Amino acid sequence: MHATAPAAPSSTRRVRAMVRRSLLSQHRSPDFWFLLLVLPMVDGLLFGSIGVAYGVGDGPVVLLVTGILLFHLVWQLTLAGSFGLLDEVWSRNLLNLIATPLTEREMLASFGVVGLLRTAVSVVVIGTVGVVFFAVSPTSAGVVLLPSAALLLLFGWSVALFVVGLTLQYGDRAEVFSWGTLVLLMPLSGVFYPVDSLPPVLQAVARAIPLTHVFDAVRVGVEHHTVAWGQLAIAAVGTLVIAVAASWFLGHQLRRFRRHGWITKFV
What we know:
- The protein is built from ten helices and no strands.
- It is mainly α.
- Helix 3 packs parallel to helix 6, helix 3 runs antiparallel to helix 9 and helix 6 runs parallel beside helix 10.
């Protein structure tokens, strides 16, 4: 991968080739299908059933199904980005890619495209579960879904960049950050409940996470059918800060990767 070399005119073709390679490689893995189809289906059924069992009226079901649908925007994009590099590490193919004209930006672009494809499939699965089993429309929150989805995708991609940077340094041991970051974010970001429901010591931490403000805005959309622009503005500022920090961190790690010869860890 050569970040400083001028890109050849066929850069789009290289991105398409990497996307095709990733899909061909991953579709043979049971993990791929589990994360793409089974997990979204289980999540949709689980949280929808919780809403039916413990909620009053349609509101809790709508909120829970919409929440898990939107969280998968972060989940699938993060996993696709981080696992994209990990897949090259596990297959011992990273050195081969470095020897090609493929640039770092093209590789990241291919991870992003795969992530968006996975996200689209996941959202369709959860949306179908919501409509078929719980009569919940994916658009129940209204117009707020559009800016919320954009912010969640940017946040998920930022987390993916951060995990890619860690993978360059720690190799396949960085896999835990792919799962661990998302596992920590779900309870702290108020996906299914207001932040006030958390223990007081964690509420300040939760409010510092941009996702919290996104899901607060979605909750207002579901309950009152209005757009909480103030919450979205706070989320946008926080997400942009995290995106800039993640981009800087990845660039820093790439420079260290070249300077210290970390490629020897992957041979």
